DNA sequence: GGTATAAGTAAACGGTGTTGACTTGTCAAG
DNA sequence: CTTGACAAGTCAACACCGTTTACTTATACC
Protein backbone atom coordinates (compact mmCIF):
# COMPACT_ATOMS: atom_id res chain seq x y z
CA UNK A 1 0.00 0.00 0.00
CA UNK A 2 2.40 2.59 -1.25
CA UNK A 3 2.42 4.80 -4.30
CA UNK A 4 1.95 1.98 -6.75
CA UNK A 5 -1.81 1.91 -7.21
CA UNK A 6 -2.59 1.80 -10.89
CA UNK A 7 -5.78 3.80 -10.42
CA UNK A 8 -4.16 7.14 -10.18
CA UNK A 9 -5.74 10.21 -11.62
CA UNK A 10 -3.57 10.36 -14.69
CA UNK A 11 -0.29 11.91 -15.66
CA UNK A 12 -1.76 15.30 -15.00
CA UNK A 13 -5.28 16.04 -13.87
CA UNK A 14 -6.76 17.32 -17.07
CA UNK A 15 -7.70 20.89 -16.46
CA UNK A 16 -10.50 21.63 -18.85
CA UNK A 17 -10.45 25.33 -18.03
CA UNK A 18 -6.94 25.95 -19.24
CA UNK A 19 -7.79 26.92 -22.76
CA UNK A 20 -11.31 27.43 -23.94
CA UNK A 21 -10.41 27.28 -27.58
CA UNK A 22 -9.60 23.54 -27.61
CA UNK A 23 -10.96 20.88 -25.34
CA UNK A 24 -11.40 18.16 -27.90
CA UNK A 25 -7.99 17.84 -29.47
CA UNK A 26 -7.44 14.73 -31.47
CA UNK A 27 -3.69 15.04 -31.60
CA UNK A 28 -3.32 15.88 -27.94
CA UNK A 29 -5.50 12.96 -26.94
CA UNK A 30 -3.56 10.63 -29.18
CA UNK A 31 -0.32 11.82 -27.67
CA UNK A 32 -1.68 11.43 -24.16
CA UNK A 33 -2.58 7.82 -24.85
CA UNK A 34 0.82 7.23 -26.38
CA UNK A 35 2.63 8.73 -23.41
CA UNK A 36 0.64 6.69 -20.95
CA UNK A 37 1.24 3.55 -22.94
CA UNK A 38 4.96 4.16 -23.11
CA UNK A 39 5.15 4.78 -19.39
CA UNK A 40 3.10 1.75 -18.42
CA UNK A 41 4.60 -0.63 -20.97
CA UNK A 42 8.04 0.46 -19.84
CA UNK A 43 7.25 -0.11 -16.21
CA UNK A 44 5.22 -3.29 -16.35
CA UNK A 45 5.51 -4.83 -19.80
CA UNK A 46 3.00 -5.20 -22.57
CA UNK A 47 0.90 -8.10 -21.36
CA UNK A 48 0.63 -6.73 -17.83
CA UNK A 49 -0.94 -3.47 -18.89
CA UNK A 50 -4.55 -3.59 -19.98
CA UNK A 51 -6.16 -1.26 -22.45
CA UNK A 52 -8.48 -0.02 -19.74
CA UNK A 53 -5.57 0.85 -17.51
CA UNK A 54 -3.84 2.80 -20.24
CA UNK A 55 -7.06 4.67 -20.93
CA UNK A 56 -7.60 5.41 -17.26
CA UNK A 57 -4.04 6.63 -16.89
CA UNK A 58 -4.44 8.88 -19.89
CA UNK A 59 -7.84 10.04 -18.71
CA UNK A 60 -9.59 8.97 -21.89
CA UNK A 61 -12.14 6.40 -22.87
CA UNK A 62 -10.99 2.88 -23.66
CA UNK A 63 -12.53 2.87 -27.09
CA UNK A 64 -10.24 5.67 -28.18
CA UNK A 65 -7.30 3.33 -28.08
CA UNK A 66 -8.83 1.22 -30.78
CA UNK A 67 -10.06 4.27 -32.61
CA UNK A 68 -6.63 5.84 -32.80
CA UNK A 69 -4.34 2.82 -32.86
CA UNK A 70 -6.48 0.06 -34.27
CA UNK A 71 -5.71 -2.23 -31.39
CA UNK A 72 -3.55 -2.47 -28.32
CA UNK A 73 -0.82 -3.93 -30.49
CA UNK A 74 -0.74 -0.74 -32.52
CA UNK A 75 0.08 1.22 -29.41
CA UNK A 76 3.19 -0.79 -28.76
CA UNK A 77 4.13 -0.64 -32.41
CA UNK A 78 4.08 3.13 -32.29
CA UNK A 79 5.96 3.28 -29.01
CA UNK A 80 8.61 0.93 -30.35
CA UNK A 81 8.96 2.79 -33.62
CA UNK A 82 9.93 5.96 -31.77
CA UNK A 83 13.00 4.59 -30.10
CA UNK A 84 16.37 3.71 -31.53
CA UNK A 85 17.81 0.39 -30.50
CA UNK A 86 21.56 0.89 -30.43
CA UNK A 87 22.04 4.41 -31.73
CA UNK A 88 25.10 4.60 -33.91
CA UNK A 89 26.69 1.40 -32.72
CA UNK A 90 26.66 -0.37 -36.04
CA UNK A 91 28.29 2.47 -37.88
CA UNK A 92 31.99 3.17 -37.63
CA UNK A 93 35.20 1.22 -37.84
CA UNK A 94 34.37 -2.45 -38.40
CA UNK A 95 37.48 -3.46 -36.53
CA UNK A 96 36.20 -2.08 -33.25
CA UNK A 97 32.58 -3.02 -33.87
CA UNK A 98 32.65 -6.02 -31.52
CA UNK A 99 33.90 -3.84 -28.71
CA UNK A 100 31.23 -1.21 -29.28
CA UNK A 101 28.51 -3.85 -29.25
CA UNK A 102 30.06 -5.42 -26.18
CA UNK A 103 29.98 -2.14 -24.33
CA UNK A 104 26.29 -1.79 -25.11
CA UNK A 105 25.71 -5.33 -23.92
CA UNK A 106 27.48 -4.66 -20.63
CA UNK A 107 25.34 -1.59 -20.16
CA UNK A 108 22.27 -3.69 -20.69
CA UNK A 109 23.54 -6.49 -18.49
CA UNK A 110 23.95 -4.00 -15.67
CA UNK A 111 20.45 -2.68 -16.00
CA UNK A 112 21.34 0.53 -17.73
CA UNK A 113 19.27 -0.23 -20.77
CA UNK A 114 16.77 2.28 -21.99
CA UNK A 115 13.39 1.72 -20.40
CA UNK A 116 11.95 0.71 -23.70
CA UNK A 117 14.54 -1.98 -24.20
CA UNK A 118 13.47 -3.36 -20.86
CA UNK A 119 9.85 -3.16 -21.88
CA UNK A 120 10.63 -5.17 -24.97
CA UNK A 121 12.43 -7.73 -22.88
CA UNK A 122 9.33 -8.03 -20.75
CA UNK A 123 7.16 -8.43 -23.79
CA UNK A 124 9.24 -10.52 -26.12
CA UNK A 125 7.23 -13.71 -26.03
CA UNK A 126 3.84 -12.36 -26.87
CA UNK A 127 2.89 -13.74 -30.29
CA UNK A 128 0.65 -10.76 -30.77
CA UNK A 129 3.85 -8.75 -30.98
CA UNK A 130 5.89 -11.05 -33.13
CA UNK A 131 5.42 -9.06 -36.30
CA UNK A 132 6.36 -5.82 -34.57
CA UNK A 133 9.35 -7.41 -32.98
CA UNK A 134 10.46 -9.03 -36.23
CA UNK A 135 10.20 -5.81 -38.18
CA UNK A 136 12.17 -3.94 -35.56
CA UNK A 137 14.84 -6.61 -35.41
CA UNK A 138 15.17 -6.59 -39.16
CA UNK A 139 15.25 -2.88 -39.82
CA UNK A 140 17.05 -1.68 -36.71
CA UNK A 141 19.59 -4.43 -36.21
CA UNK A 142 20.00 -7.13 -38.83
CA UNK A 143 20.01 -4.93 -41.91
CA UNK A 144 22.32 -2.18 -40.64
CA UNK A 145 24.66 -4.66 -39.03
CA UNK A 146 24.86 -6.94 -42.04
CA UNK A 147 25.30 -3.89 -44.25
CA UNK A 148 28.44 -2.88 -42.42
CA UNK A 149 30.03 -6.29 -42.60
CA UNK A 150 32.45 -7.19 -45.32
CA UNK A 151 33.13 -10.68 -46.48
CA UNK A 152 30.88 -13.67 -47.05
CA UNK A 153 27.81 -14.71 -45.09
CA UNK A 154 27.20 -11.22 -43.77
CA UNK A 155 23.61 -12.04 -43.03
CA UNK A 156 24.44 -15.18 -41.07
CA UNK A 157 27.16 -13.44 -39.09
CA UNK A 158 24.86 -10.56 -38.29
CA UNK A 159 22.22 -13.00 -37.15
CA UNK A 160 24.67 -14.61 -34.79
CA UNK A 161 25.54 -11.28 -33.21
CA UNK A 162 21.88 -10.34 -32.94
CA UNK A 163 21.27 -13.73 -31.41
CA UNK A 164 23.71 -12.83 -28.65
CA UNK A 165 22.02 -9.50 -28.07
CA UNK A 166 18.64 -11.18 -27.89
CA UNK A 167 19.98 -13.86 -25.61
CA UNK A 168 21.08 -11.28 -23.09
CA UNK A 169 17.58 -9.86 -23.07
CA UNK A 170 16.05 -13.25 -22.48
CA UNK A 171 18.55 -14.11 -19.78
CA UNK A 172 17.85 -10.87 -17.99
CA UNK A 173 14.13 -11.36 -18.29
CA UNK A 174 14.20 -14.88 -16.94
CA UNK A 175 17.02 -14.77 -14.46
CA UNK A 176 16.60 -11.23 -13.30
CA UNK A 177 19.04 -8.38 -13.18
CA UNK A 178 21.58 -10.31 -11.15
CA UNK A 179 22.47 -12.63 -13.97
CA UNK A 180 25.62 -10.98 -15.28
CA UNK A 181 25.57 -7.80 -13.24
CA UNK A 182 28.11 -8.99 -10.73
CA UNK A 183 31.75 -9.13 -11.53
CA UNK A 184 34.12 -6.72 -13.13
CA UNK A 185 32.61 -4.66 -15.92
CA UNK A 186 35.87 -4.45 -17.79
CA UNK A 187 36.33 -8.17 -17.86
CA UNK A 188 32.76 -8.70 -18.93
CA UNK A 189 33.34 -6.26 -21.75
CA UNK A 190 36.34 -8.29 -22.84
CA UNK A 191 34.30 -11.45 -22.77
CA UNK A 192 31.49 -10.00 -24.80
CA UNK A 193 33.98 -8.51 -27.24
CA UNK A 194 35.48 -11.89 -27.95
CA UNK A 195 32.05 -13.48 -28.24
CA UNK A 196 30.77 -10.89 -30.69
CA UNK A 197 34.03 -11.13 -32.59
CA UNK A 198 33.45 -14.85 -32.89
CA UNK A 199 29.94 -14.19 -34.15
CA UNK A 200 31.10 -11.73 -36.78
CA UNK A 201 34.26 -13.54 -37.86
CA UNK A 202 34.56 -13.76 -41.62
CA UNK A 203 36.00 -17.23 -41.56
CA UNK A 204 35.90 -19.84 -38.90
CA UNK A 205 38.69 -22.25 -38.19
CA UNK A 206 37.96 -25.59 -36.57
CA UNK A 207 38.49 -25.30 -32.83
CA UNK A 208 38.70 -27.51 -29.82
CA UNK A 209 36.74 -30.34 -31.34
CA UNK A 210 39.12 -31.20 -34.13
CA UNK A 211 38.61 -32.80 -37.49
CA UNK A 212 38.08 -36.26 -36.07
CA UNK A 213 34.41 -35.28 -35.76
CA UNK B 1 -11.31 -26.29 -43.41
CA UNK B 2 -9.05 -29.23 -42.98
CA UNK B 3 -8.20 -31.35 -40.01
CA UNK B 4 -7.13 -28.47 -37.83
CA UNK B 5 -10.31 -27.61 -35.98
CA UNK B 6 -9.57 -27.38 -32.30
CA UNK B 7 -13.04 -28.61 -31.40
CA UNK B 8 -12.35 -32.22 -32.03
CA UNK B 9 -13.80 -34.88 -29.87
CA UNK B 10 -10.65 -35.48 -27.89
CA UNK B 11 -7.61 -37.68 -28.18
CA UNK B 12 -9.91 -40.68 -28.09
CA UNK B 13 -13.65 -40.59 -27.73
CA UNK B 14 -14.01 -41.65 -24.14
CA UNK B 15 -15.87 -44.90 -24.21
CA UNK B 16 -17.67 -45.09 -20.92
CA UNK B 17 -18.69 -48.70 -21.49
CA UNK B 18 -15.17 -50.06 -21.76
CA UNK B 19 -14.71 -51.02 -18.15
CA UNK B 20 -17.47 -50.85 -15.62
CA UNK B 21 -15.19 -51.18 -12.66
CA UNK B 22 -13.62 -47.73 -12.99
CA UNK B 23 -15.16 -44.72 -14.56
CA UNK B 24 -13.95 -42.13 -12.08
CA UNK B 25 -10.20 -42.49 -12.00
CA UNK B 26 -8.34 -39.57 -10.55
CA UNK B 27 -4.94 -40.55 -11.88
CA UNK B 28 -6.19 -41.39 -15.35
CA UNK B 29 -8.02 -38.09 -15.59
CA UNK B 30 -4.99 -36.19 -14.41
CA UNK B 31 -2.87 -37.92 -17.00
CA UNK B 32 -5.39 -37.23 -19.72
CA UNK B 33 -5.30 -33.52 -18.94
CA UNK B 34 -1.52 -33.58 -18.88
CA UNK B 35 -1.31 -35.33 -22.24
CA UNK B 36 -3.72 -32.91 -23.84
CA UNK B 37 -1.84 -29.97 -22.41
CA UNK B 38 1.49 -31.23 -23.68
CA UNK B 39 0.09 -31.82 -27.13
CA UNK B 40 -1.61 -28.45 -27.41
CA UNK B 41 1.16 -26.42 -25.77
CA UNK B 42 3.63 -28.10 -28.08
CA UNK B 43 1.60 -27.34 -31.15
CA UNK B 44 0.36 -23.82 -30.40
CA UNK B 45 2.26 -22.43 -27.43
CA UNK B 46 1.14 -21.66 -23.93
CA UNK B 47 -0.74 -18.40 -24.39
CA UNK B 48 -2.58 -19.64 -27.46
CA UNK B 49 -4.16 -22.58 -25.69
CA UNK B 50 -6.99 -21.83 -23.30
CA UNK B 51 -7.89 -23.88 -20.28
CA UNK B 52 -11.26 -24.64 -21.80
CA UNK B 53 -9.65 -25.98 -24.95
CA UNK B 54 -7.37 -28.26 -22.99
CA UNK B 55 -10.32 -29.52 -21.01
CA UNK B 56 -12.38 -30.10 -24.13
CA UNK B 57 -9.51 -31.94 -25.78
CA UNK B 58 -9.09 -34.13 -22.73
CA UNK B 59 -12.82 -34.64 -22.44
CA UNK B 60 -13.00 -33.33 -18.91
CA UNK B 61 -14.48 -30.35 -17.16
CA UNK B 62 -12.52 -27.12 -17.07
CA UNK B 63 -12.58 -26.90 -13.32
CA UNK B 64 -10.59 -30.09 -13.04
CA UNK B 65 -7.55 -28.32 -14.40
CA UNK B 66 -7.49 -26.02 -11.44
CA UNK B 67 -8.42 -28.83 -9.09
CA UNK B 68 -5.51 -31.00 -10.17
CA UNK B 69 -2.90 -28.44 -11.17
CA UNK B 70 -3.79 -25.37 -9.19
CA UNK B 71 -3.83 -23.19 -12.25
CA UNK B 72 -3.04 -23.29 -15.94
CA UNK B 73 0.53 -22.38 -15.07
CA UNK B 74 0.85 -25.58 -13.07
CA UNK B 75 0.03 -27.59 -16.14
CA UNK B 76 2.94 -26.16 -18.07
CA UNK B 77 5.20 -26.56 -15.06
CA UNK B 78 4.45 -30.25 -14.96
CA UNK B 79 4.83 -30.67 -18.70
CA UNK B 80 8.15 -28.86 -18.64
CA UNK B 81 9.45 -30.82 -15.68
CA UNK B 82 9.05 -34.07 -17.59
CA UNK B 83 11.39 -33.23 -20.41
CA UNK B 84 15.16 -33.04 -20.48
CA UNK B 85 16.62 -29.97 -22.15
CA UNK B 86 19.89 -31.12 -23.66
CA UNK B 87 20.19 -34.72 -22.52
CA UNK B 88 23.76 -35.54 -21.65
CA UNK B 89 25.33 -32.65 -23.48
CA UNK B 90 26.92 -31.03 -20.48
CA UNK B 91 28.62 -34.19 -19.32
CA UNK B 92 31.73 -35.54 -20.94
CA UNK B 93 35.06 -34.18 -22.08
CA UNK B 94 35.17 -30.44 -21.38
CA UNK B 95 37.45 -29.94 -24.34
CA UNK B 96 34.77 -30.96 -26.82
CA UNK B 97 31.90 -29.40 -24.87
CA UNK B 98 31.60 -26.38 -27.18
CA UNK B 99 31.26 -28.65 -30.17
CA UNK B 100 28.57 -30.77 -28.51
CA UNK B 101 26.60 -27.68 -27.59
CA UNK B 102 27.10 -26.29 -31.07
CA UNK B 103 25.71 -29.45 -32.62
CA UNK B 104 22.61 -29.15 -30.47
CA UNK B 105 22.26 -25.53 -31.47
CA UNK B 106 22.48 -26.37 -35.15
CA UNK B 107 19.81 -28.99 -34.66
CA UNK B 108 17.61 -26.41 -33.05
CA UNK B 109 18.41 -23.80 -35.68
CA UNK B 110 17.25 -26.22 -38.34
CA UNK B 111 13.97 -26.91 -36.63
CA UNK B 112 14.85 -30.31 -35.26
CA UNK B 113 14.30 -29.30 -31.69
CA UNK B 114 12.06 -31.36 -29.51
CA UNK B 115 8.50 -30.13 -29.71
CA UNK B 116 8.62 -29.02 -26.14
CA UNK B 117 11.64 -26.86 -26.76
CA UNK B 118 9.64 -25.19 -29.49
CA UNK B 119 6.72 -24.78 -27.16
CA UNK B 120 8.96 -23.06 -24.68
CA UNK B 121 10.25 -20.80 -27.40
CA UNK B 122 6.67 -19.88 -28.18
CA UNK B 123 5.94 -19.21 -24.56
CA UNK B 124 9.10 -17.58 -23.31
CA UNK B 125 7.83 -14.09 -22.76
CA UNK B 126 4.85 -14.84 -20.59
CA UNK B 127 5.60 -13.45 -17.14
CA UNK B 128 3.20 -15.96 -15.72
CA UNK B 129 5.81 -18.51 -16.68
CA UNK B 130 8.89 -16.68 -15.60
CA UNK B 131 9.35 -18.64 -12.39
CA UNK B 132 8.96 -21.94 -14.21
CA UNK B 133 11.34 -20.86 -16.91
CA UNK B 134 13.89 -19.58 -14.39
CA UNK B 135 13.83 -22.76 -12.37
CA UNK B 136 14.26 -24.87 -15.46
CA UNK B 137 17.10 -22.73 -16.74
CA UNK B 138 18.84 -22.92 -13.41
CA UNK B 139 18.50 -26.61 -12.69
CA UNK B 140 18.72 -28.01 -16.19
CA UNK B 141 21.30 -25.74 -17.76
CA UNK B 142 23.19 -23.28 -15.60
CA UNK B 143 23.99 -25.54 -12.68
CA UNK B 144 25.09 -28.61 -14.64
CA UNK B 145 27.02 -26.53 -17.12
CA UNK B 146 28.80 -24.45 -14.49
CA UNK B 147 29.50 -27.60 -12.52
CA UNK B 148 31.44 -29.11 -15.38
CA UNK B 149 33.57 -26.05 -15.96
CA UNK B 150 36.96 -25.70 -14.41
CA UNK B 151 38.64 -22.43 -13.72
CA UNK B 152 37.37 -19.11 -12.45
CA UNK B 153 34.04 -17.45 -13.11
CA UNK B 154 32.34 -20.71 -13.98
CA UNK B 155 28.97 -19.24 -13.30
CA UNK B 156 29.52 -16.23 -15.54
CA UNK B 157 30.91 -18.35 -18.34
CA UNK B 158 28.01 -20.75 -18.09
CA UNK B 159 25.60 -17.83 -18.22
CA UNK B 160 27.20 -16.61 -21.40
CA UNK B 161 26.78 -19.99 -23.07
CA UNK B 162 23.20 -20.23 -21.88
CA UNK B 163 22.66 -16.74 -23.19
CA UNK B 164 23.64 -17.95 -26.63
CA UNK B 165 21.29 -20.90 -26.39
CA UNK B 166 18.45 -18.63 -25.31
CA UNK B 167 19.26 -16.16 -28.04
CA UNK B 168 18.82 -18.81 -30.68
CA UNK B 169 15.39 -19.57 -29.29
CA UNK B 170 14.39 -15.94 -29.37
CA UNK B 171 15.76 -15.44 -32.86
CA UNK B 172 13.87 -18.44 -34.12
CA UNK B 173 10.71 -17.31 -32.42
CA UNK B 174 10.87 -13.81 -33.82
CA UNK B 175 12.46 -14.34 -37.19
CA UNK B 176 10.98 -17.70 -37.96
CA UNK B 177 12.63 -20.93 -38.91
CA UNK B 178 14.48 -19.41 -41.83
CA UNK B 179 16.80 -17.39 -39.64
CA UNK B 180 19.85 -19.63 -39.62
CA UNK B 181 18.45 -22.67 -41.35
CA UNK B 182 19.98 -21.88 -44.70
CA UNK B 183 23.60 -22.41 -45.36
CA UNK B 184 25.95 -25.25 -44.71
CA UNK B 185 25.27 -27.10 -41.48
CA UNK B 186 28.93 -28.00 -41.01
CA UNK B 187 30.04 -24.41 -41.26
CA UNK B 188 27.32 -23.28 -38.91
CA UNK B 189 28.49 -25.89 -36.45
CA UNK B 190 32.00 -24.49 -36.68
CA UNK B 191 30.69 -21.00 -36.07
CA UNK B 192 28.66 -22.00 -33.07
CA UNK B 193 31.57 -24.00 -31.72
CA UNK B 194 33.83 -20.97 -31.77
CA UNK B 195 31.13 -18.81 -30.23
CA UNK B 196 30.46 -21.21 -27.38
CA UNK B 197 34.18 -21.63 -26.91
CA UNK B 198 34.45 -17.87 -26.54
CA UNK B 199 31.65 -17.95 -24.01
CA UNK B 200 33.26 -20.66 -21.93
CA UNK B 201 36.87 -19.49 -22.23
CA UNK B 202 38.64 -19.48 -18.89
CA UNK B 203 40.55 -16.31 -19.61
CA UNK B 204 39.89 -13.65 -22.13
CA UNK B 205 42.54 -11.74 -23.97
CA UNK B 206 41.86 -8.29 -25.34
CA UNK B 207 40.83 -8.58 -28.98
CA UNK B 208 40.25 -6.44 -32.00
CA UNK B 209 39.51 -3.30 -30.03
CA UNK B 210 42.96 -2.89 -28.47
CA UNK B 211 44.12 -1.22 -25.31
CA UNK B 212 43.68 2.27 -26.72
CA UNK B 213 40.07 2.03 -25.48
C1' DG C 1 -27.61 30.63 -35.01
C1' DG C 2 -27.98 26.23 -37.10
C1' DT C 3 -25.87 22.22 -38.52
C1' DA C 4 -22.49 18.71 -40.27
C1' DT C 5 -18.91 16.22 -38.47
C1' DA C 6 -15.54 14.71 -35.69
C1' DA C 7 -14.36 13.59 -30.68
C1' DG C 8 -15.67 11.19 -27.02
C1' DT C 9 -18.78 7.89 -24.45
C1' DA C 10 -21.41 3.86 -22.64
C1' DA C 11 -22.64 -0.63 -22.95
C1' DA C 12 -22.25 -4.75 -24.69
C1' DC C 13 -19.89 -9.01 -27.02
C1' DG C 14 -17.30 -13.09 -26.73
C1' DG C 15 -13.33 -14.59 -24.64
C1' DT C 16 -10.02 -15.62 -20.70
C1' DG C 17 -8.48 -17.92 -15.98
C1' DT C 18 -10.44 -19.08 -11.77
C1' DT C 19 -13.70 -20.24 -7.89
C1' DG C 20 -17.34 -22.04 -4.96
C1' DA C 21 -21.47 -24.53 -4.47
C1' DC C 22 -23.51 -28.26 -6.20
C1' DT C 23 -24.42 -33.18 -8.02
C1' DT C 24 -23.16 -37.82 -8.62
C1' DG C 25 -20.66 -41.97 -8.83
C1' DT C 26 -17.98 -45.28 -5.98
C1' DC C 27 -16.79 -47.90 -2.17
C1' DA C 28 -17.03 -49.50 2.55
C1' DA C 29 -19.61 -50.31 6.74
C1' DG C 30 -23.74 -51.86 8.90
C1' DC D 1 -28.87 -54.94 0.29
C1' DT D 2 -29.18 -50.50 2.08
C1' DT D 3 -27.08 -46.51 3.62
C1' DG D 4 -23.97 -43.16 4.23
C1' DA D 5 -19.44 -40.65 3.44
C1' DC D 6 -16.26 -38.91 0.48
C1' DA D 7 -14.03 -38.10 -3.53
C1' DA D 8 -14.68 -37.11 -8.60
C1' DG D 9 -16.86 -34.46 -11.59
C1' DT D 10 -20.15 -30.58 -12.97
C1' DC D 11 -22.22 -26.08 -13.41
C1' DA D 12 -22.72 -21.36 -13.15
C1' DA D 13 -20.87 -17.48 -11.89
C1' DC D 14 -16.99 -13.97 -11.04
C1' DA D 15 -13.89 -10.42 -12.57
C1' DC D 16 -11.18 -9.26 -16.09
C1' DC D 17 -9.51 -8.94 -20.93
C1' DG D 18 -9.51 -6.71 -25.99
C1' DT D 19 -12.69 -5.06 -29.09
C1' DT D 20 -16.96 -3.18 -31.43
C1' DT D 21 -21.24 -0.86 -32.02
C1' DA D 22 -24.54 2.57 -31.38
C1' DC D 23 -24.89 6.63 -29.23
C1' DT D 24 -24.12 11.54 -27.29
C1' DT D 25 -21.86 15.84 -27.41
C1' DA D 26 -18.71 19.46 -28.35
C1' DT D 27 -16.59 21.97 -32.01
C1' DA D 28 -16.09 24.61 -36.35
C1' DC D 29 -17.81 26.19 -40.43
C1' DC D 30 -21.52 28.46 -43.32
TrEMBL record, chains A, B:
Organism for this UniProt entry: Nocardiopsis ansamitocini
Feature: DNA-binding region: 50-69
Region (Disordered): 1-26
Coiled coil regions, renumbered to chain: none
Protein name, UniProt field: HTH tetR-type domain-containing protein
PROSITE patterns (alphabetical): HTH_TETR_2
Pfam families linked: TetR_C_16, TetR_N
Keyword match Nucleotide-binding: no
Entry keywords, A to Z: DNA-binding
Gene Ontology molecular function terms on file: DNA-binding transcription factor activity; transcription cis-regulatory region binding
Skewed-composition ranges (Basic and acidic residues): 17-26
Amino acid sequence: MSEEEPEMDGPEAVDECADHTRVRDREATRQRILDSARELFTRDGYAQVSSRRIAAHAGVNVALINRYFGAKRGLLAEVVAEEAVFPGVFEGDPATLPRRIAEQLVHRARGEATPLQRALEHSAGDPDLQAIYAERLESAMLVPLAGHLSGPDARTRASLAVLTILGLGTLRRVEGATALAEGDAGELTERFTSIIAACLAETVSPQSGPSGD
